[in-house]
Design goal:
The chain is α/β, with parallel strands linked by helices and 278 residues long. It has a single domain, classed as TIM Barrel (Alpha-Beta Barrel). The chain is 38% helix and 14% strand. The chain has 10 helices and 8 strands. Strands 4-5-6-7-8 form a 5-stranded parallel beta sheet. The two termini are 30 Å apart.
Amino acid sequence: MFVDTHCHLYDASLFRRLPELLARAKAAGVTRFIVPGVGPDCWDDVMAVARDQRGIFAAPGIHPMRAALFSEESLARLEQLCRDAVAVGEIGLDYGYDISREVQQRAFRAQLRLAVRHTLPVLIHCRKAFADTLTILREEEVRRVGGVMHAFSGSPEIAVECVRLGLFIGVAGPVTYDNAVRPVEVVRQTPLEHLLLETDAPDLTPVPHRGRPNEPAFMVETAKKIAEIKGVTLEEVAHVTTANAERLFRLQTYPLKQLTADERRYTPINQRVGTNKW
């Protein structure tokens, strides 16, 4: 069995097909899903899909592209949601966006402190900002809660530094691409005990499904590529990465219970139309 540690199931392109996507995922052996948020406007959808479906867990946060939406008010709301979340994410730094570094860093630090306060791991987005990201992670003591470098795009050397900080390396579809060099080398050099699987659905679709929206069932292709690179069986990849996810997100402490409508504190997902990831 596999855990997709990063999939945006509330996204409109996935949400409208959610029952069939989950059925295909489970047929492929993907049975649990971490759903990150990217901003306050999607948090209700994130929390709803987690409450309405078995094996789906919420990780609300403010993506660096949405850092301008960070405020004391949004932080207070995020703190309330932490009691029903398994992680804080997707947070981090991305210097490829036209958003000031100061604004991004302020939102990143505040959310890291929130995660530490609530003993929740973090889902970290990092692009063109590894030096600053690592510095902030050290200063904010991320080792106390752990986390994952989502869809890691750095070098093997940076991966080593992340592991030293108590972080897992998230491996997604790009490792299957024909021109993949750095992702393959990162997987080759990083022990399986420090890797996690993810899709980032609907993005980063792996070979042979490129050109289609990504979905959790396709994550098996990423797992197969990892098995090929590491020279191990697919079953070993499934066993070790699932154990990694269970440990990081403490999934064994959450019963796979279907809540009744009266037990839900958020609008039922079947009354929502879905929202776009971005």
